[in-house]
Write a structure and sequence with these properties.
With 691 residues, the protein is α+β, with helices and mostly antiparallel strands. The chain is built from 14 helices and 35 strands. Strands 6, 7, 8, 9, 11, 12, 13, 14, 15, 16, 17, 19 and 20 form a 13-stranded antiparallel beta sheet that branches. Strands 26-25-24-23-22-21-27 form a seven-stranded parallel beta sheet. It has a six-stranded antiparallel beta sheet with strand order 28-29-30-35-32-33. A hairpin with a 7-residue loop joins strand 6 and strand 7. It binds 1-deoxynojirimycin (NOJ) and calcium ion.
Length: 691
């Protein structure tokens, strides 16, 4: 063996050590670069920029508008029950971009033709230590950003149980915010207007004023087989919110087979509050129509055997004050057919109403009460060309409803009834399930699909919030999920500001069955009868608007099934009812003329089936004069305006039913119409082309 001097050994060792250190650094560097990345996409108009960031293996994103930061660097990812978290240790596998530009046509809606134009970034991530994959899709539009998660099939897992979704929304300031509480069972609340830091938990959409020229709303699109998302404030940071999914009874949020995709998380961005209303991003993030036959799907106005039950002059169950009698239904059919109202809702027609709200609602959706001759009513309605709207109140007893689902819809189909209002007012059964949890999201969808098989459209009350599903299933026409008119009948009611907040919050998500149109705002004609039937306390209840504002809501609140909710006797020979007769429910286009969240808003819409335009303008409790610029009108045409406005002394509290009707001729594109809105008032305008 050859002798090697010790100095030589030292030199070799030194070189080996250096080589080792260099190799170590090299590996660390490549690891590091795989674990750090930034990919950027811009909106088609270049104004919005979204960044995906991988920071030492943690996935994050941010959103900018020019040099304003809309959402600062925020977390992405998941925690699971018995699966490693997907929140770090990721390497970037691939990032690809794509772009899309098409115009599609809605079968009905606020806008006939919708441009779907976005740039997309798909990011594929891999955690080699755990061998798990996560993909992210970002779509950036001129009106905001949507992103969703995709968990592909994993080698060792077919299913996941999501314990929490880690999506963050880190704002840069304590913005003024409009929000309702994050109740897992109801959206029927008045809105809070507070700094962001006062939000503890909120249901979406939540809307923010970040700056004078920066309005933002957070919601979700295409909510399918997943739990509804609420926003919870991050305790460590007053300006930060995070996703908070509604749980199953066992605390798990989502149970899904792989591969799975989450709904889109949406951040709508606009320079004016009205820009949020004109955004179609949520619809664009949904899949195209999946239904074959749309022939039975018809937008329409309707009246109903309904308000009488809420103000206490009728009952749902049979008895001396039963609303749904054959005779009453025929009276409503007569009114509808004489006044250009194509639909009639009948509540309380079926057996079982005494059990409603008892904690064990057991109704029968194929058994009419004895004083409701359904054969005769359907025959009569058909003869008068009025479509009936059926009613299924589940009271939240889902197993009971699901057992009857097929025959309940067959029953409607057999009678030529193409619309049904569903209801979920009551405690959920099975116990512990929530209206906004994954199980119920799937139930609501099952109902929509069953309804389609029987050619029935849905108006869901106590629903899951709208997320644009109507694009994919156009028979899912409208829903409640809003603190609607009914609250005026049996609670302190909805204050005048409610109507000036809803268009910028709940209605951004989709149509709402608010049920406007109460003319007897003081509920006066019912007073004597009510004294006998309901407690004195309720006699204070009333509607908190002027009559003209009730008309304006037919334009301001979009619903393809739009109710004129008062008792029909309050409409008989009332000159203002002409506006409800005329106003369409299906639009060619929608423009927001002006608006400040919580203060006032004016919306103009063009009829889809004629050359007429309609305008609705509403204010909070403050009176104001608005100069409505008609820049939206078609050029070269002259229009006559029929203006339904507050009377000179009108005031929502002191003189709510004072109104006037004016006619103004020769209105053209660019003309201004000055409207004086009373405190809590409004104006409704019909513009028709002159011969
Ligand atoms: C609550 C609904 O919102 C209302 O419209 C309906 O009349 C009752 N539930 C009874 O179903
Ligand atoms: Ca309700």
């Amino acid at each position: 063996m050859k002798f090697v001097p010790s100095t030589r050994i030292q030199t070799i060792a030194k070189h080996a050590a250096l080589l080792f250190i260099a190799l170590f650094h090299l590996t660390a560097l490549t690891m590091c670069s795989k674990q750090n990345a930034r990919h950027t996409i811009q909106s088609p108009d270049g104004r919005l920029t979204a960044n995906f960031l991988l920071k030492s293996g943690e996935p994050m994103y941010m959103l900018n508008k020019g040099n304003q930061t809309v959402i600062d660097t925020s977390h992405l990812g998941y925690k699971f029950n018995s699966l490693p978290a997907m929140d770090g240790n990721f390497e970037l596998v691939e990032a690809t971009t794509d772009s899309h530009d098409e115009t599609w046509t809605q079968p009905w809606g606020e806008e006939k033709d919708i441009r779907n134009n976005y740039n997309q970034l798909k990011v594929q991530l891999h955690n080699p230590a755990e061998n798990v994959h996560l993909n992210l899709y970002f779509r950036i539009f001129n009106d905001g950003l949507g992103f969703r998660y995709e968990i592909p099939q994993l080698a060792s897992y077919n299913q996941v149980e999501i314990a929490s979704e880690l999506t963050g929304f880190n704002f840069t300031g304590n913005h003024l915010s409009w929000w309702i509480p994050g109740d897992p069972d109801s959206y029927e609340y008045l809105y809070h207007e507070t700094p962001l830091s006062k939000i503890d938990s909120a249901n979406t959409p939540v809307t923010f004023k970040a700056d004078d020229n920066l309005y933002v709303s957070i919601h979700e699109a295409a909510l399918t087989n997943y739990a509804g998302m609420r926003l919870r404030r991050n305790e460590q940071d007053k300006n930060a919110l995070k996703s908070d999914l509604v749980p199953w009874p066992d605390g798990i949020k989502v149970k899904a087979d792989l591969p799975m995709q989450s709904p889109w998380r949406t951040i709508q961005v606009a320079e004016t509050p009205g820009g949020l209303i004109e955004s179609n991003m949520i619809l664009n993030l949904n899949e195209p129509n999946k239904l074959d036959d749309l022939s039975y799907i018809k937008p329409m106005k309707y009246v109903g055997i309904w308000w009488g039950m809420h103000i206490g002059v009728n009952t749902w169950h049979a008895g001396p004050h039963h609303g749904a009698t054959t005779e009453n239904a025929k009276r409503y059919v007569d009114f509808a057919s004489q006044h250009n109202i194509p639909g009639l809702l009948v509540e309380g027609w079926n057996k079982g109403w005494k059990s409603w709200l008892s904690g064990n609602n057991e109704q029968d959706y194929t058994q009419p009460y004895d004083d409701f001759n359904i054969q005769e009513v359907t025959r009569y309605a058909k003869e008068k060309n009025v479509g009936l709207i059926g009613h299924h109140e589940t009271g939240g007893n889902i197993p009971m409803y699901e057992k009857q689902l097929e025959e309940a819809f067959q029953y409607l189909e057999d009678r030529g009834i193409h619309a049904v209002k569903t209801g979920y007012a009551g405690e959920m059964k099975p116990e512990g399930m929530h209206h906004h949890g994954q199980w119920m999201v799937n139930h609501y969808r099952r109902v929509v699909k069953t309804a389609h098989r029987h050619k029935v459209v849905i108006d869901a009350h106590e629903p899951i919030k709208p997320t644009g599903i109507r694009r994919t299933y156009p028979n899912m026409m409208t829903r409640e999920g809003i603190r609607g008119m009914e609250y005026n009948a049996w609670s302190k009611g909805n204050p005048p500001s409610h109507h000036t907040i809803l268009p910028f919050t709940r209605l951004l998500a989709g149509p709402a069955d608010y049920t406007p149109g109460v003319f007897d705002v003081l509920l006066q004609q019912q007073h004597d009868k009510r004294k006998k039937l309901v407690s004195d306390k309720n006699l204070e209840n009333r509607v908190h608007t002027t009559l003209a504002k009730q008309l304006a809501l037919f334009v301001v609140f979009y619903s393809p099934l739009q109710m004129a909710s008062d008792l029909v006797e309050n409409y008989e020979s009332h000159p203002a009812f002409k506006f409800i007769e005329d106003v369409p429910v299906d639009w060619q286009t929608t423009r927001v003329v002006n608006g400040e969240i919580g203060q006032y808003v004016t919306i103009a819409r063009k009829d889809r089936h004629s050359e007429e335009w309609y305008i609705g303008s509403v204010t909070n409790k403050k009176k104001r004069t608005l100069n409505l610029s008609c820049s939206f009108l078609d050029s070269g045409k002259h229009y006559t305006a029929e203006v339904y406005k507050d009377g000179k002394t009108a005031h929502w509290k002191k003189n709510p039913t004072s109104y006037a009707i004016d006619t103004i001729e020769d209105i053209r594109k660019g003309s201004e119409i000055a409207v004086k809105l009373a405190g809590g008032g409004g104006a409704a305008i019909r513009l028709y082309p002159e011969e």
